[in-house]
Amino acid sequence: MTQTKQKIVIDPVTRIEGHLRVEIEVDENNTVTEAWASGQLFRGIETILKGRDPRDTGLIAQRICGVCTNSHYRASITAVENAYGIVPPRNAEIVRNLVSLALFVQDHIVHYYHLHSLDYVDVVAALSADCEQASKVAHQWHKQPYNCSQGDLEAVQEKLSSFVKAGRLGLFANGYWGHQQYKLSPEENLIHMNHYLEALRIQREVSKAIAIFAGKTPHPQNLVVGGVTSVMDMLNPQRLNDYLFIIKDTQEFLKRAYLPDMKMVVAAYNDDIKAGFGRGRGNFMTSGGFPLGDDEPLFESGVIWAHDFDKLDEFDVTHITEEAARSWYADEAPTSPFDETTEPFYTDLNTDGTLKTEGKYSWIKAPRYQGEPMEVGPAARMLIGYLKGGKYVKPYMQHFMDDTGMELIDFSSSVGRNAARAVEAEVVCDMIFGFVSELIENIKYYDEETWTKYDFESLPMNTKGCAVVEVPRGTLSHFVRIDEAKVQNYQAVVPTTWNASPKDAKGRRGPYEEAIVGLTLADPKQPLEVLRAVHSFDPCLACAVHVIDAKGKTLAEHRVHPIGGL
Amino acid sequence: MTEAENTPNIAVLGVGNILFRDEGLGIYATQFLKDNYDFSPPIDLIDGGTIGMNLIHYYQSYDHLLLLDTISVDEEGEPGSVYCLPSEVLQGMGNYRRTAHEVEVLQTLELGALAGDVADIQVIAMVPEDMDSVSISLTDTVKQTLPLLIQTTLEQLEKLGVEVKQKISPVSLEQILRRYDQQQAPFHNVS
User: Fold this and answer.
1) Whose CB has fewer CB within 10 Å in chain A, the N or C terminal residue?
2) Is B117 in CB contact (< 8 Å) with chain A?
3) Domain that holds residue B100
4) Do A217 and B54 touch (CB under 8 A)?
5) What is the pLDDT of residues A105-128, one digit of tens each?
């Protein structure tokens, strides 16, 4: 049996070699029997924050990741507020939410269309679509589909055709086009690609909306310990209007493009969903949050174990530990993030460049909740929101399930995670209006408070605090320990660490690994099924390296040589 | 953005993560230009950080964009080497299958081309020495060759018709690095 097993290295899953790689072992039927996910994730935040004034951590922490700037910024500020027992005024919280929630919407749109949809949508097939027919198909999924007249679709097809045929875009030149696992019709592919292009415009608009309250982009300074600085924006009706205008436009896109497209994908890939492709262990966790004016949270909190939907545990941050038995660090034992160290202990790769799968194999630590690996993200939030009867989430989930025939277990799959993400984008976008109304009401009654005053000198010299917040990719937590009014230790446990976790001392797989094991590959040379599973988690390893990788290209003629003595 | 209507909009955009030593070189170079030169017509000098998809927003906001970044190359490029490339040279490298999740400069160049109406982009990049250390600083190698990258950027700006004048009181690279390392949040002194 063992000699028929074959090892396959999928590297890079993301662009940069070693950034995120997956190694799998398949049997003679090309079914994955074991998987190892290895990644480089930001490490060393404590090195750089140690000794700093706790009021400044947010400015540095926001640099951890450019894609998640606002998420880290807010988490860092919130952790310090928690340490000092400072509670920002409600208006400050609302302004923070207007940024955070717009980010959810933007992130979900970009993730689905630009970073993931081409795992399900065949660009080349879209070129042979009949545009008249495609327009009819679009009207089957929504009575007013977004930008889907025959003329619109013809224009899109022509544009795509020119790009694909020119071969100028690596984006479209190097996919697994024609792979037998692509299941949409040419017309459905074209509708998707149409919205892919529209989504480029929409995401840009949302980033403008975010900038209204986040102020200076791309490095915001709107948050401070105790509240927000963007007071003038909050009190300026024109700015609020601009924000709302963009959110309304985006809402249209979600309801008339994203949701119908997702329902189309769910229908086309229904067999994959029902077969449980990409299903994990079934441990889900969310910390909840974003209470609206009626004190009902947008997201409920809770923990699901092994797909047991009849029993929900309460979420408790003190159950979080990180360990490194299989990660390249010296400190291996499960430790509370308040006390963690990050001392690298690199044991290298095998001589042939493959992972040492029996030992340490990743730069990502293994976060655990009560010792167990957990999946975080939209699927966790939507499932737990549904099960707890969340006032805001449940009706949206119910509606989507009624429309598609999906059951709860189906959201625990590659396509299912995407469905949960789409439902979440819709509910979050709709709820933004609730927060805006509340803010307008408050201002109307002269509640213009946006900062809780405090005297730094009289705050405790030694303390600790943490922030556990829901961000687009899942649960994000920052932990800060303060000694003599300076940062003594700092740790961030990010959503991708939970999902991309390697195995632990007991050999339990992380969520990516668990989702991959059991998949059967149609063609081991084109492991599309594995990419679908990994990408469904919306991995963000943007925090690692940003060099332009021009390897494989001769650039000598473009090199600049110093002249004279420079 | 520049105010004059009939002059082209020009920006210098530094990208990279300042927490990883040489990875921040494009950002420091941009800040150096901002602190040491006056430009006529005025141009925008932007600390782009690692903003991923939002880069496209900048591509679409200008006529000409100089992108300062780090680069890794095959051949002779030892740390400190400087390259000046029109973005077309890099096109075709934003491989979808291999990208997927972190959006990098190469992908945004391609997505920008799809979105349409983008600036004429010139990439001016240097091979870094150390991007593993977590530190807001630069290696000596990069410090020594950064003037070449800055000079190249100034020459490109002049080619675009921008007049460059040195400011009266210069700010050194060391001062800039220190400022980035010791940034403070607002509201420190209010209580």
Assistant:
1) N
2) no
3) 10-181
4) yes
5) 999 999 999 888 999 999 999 999
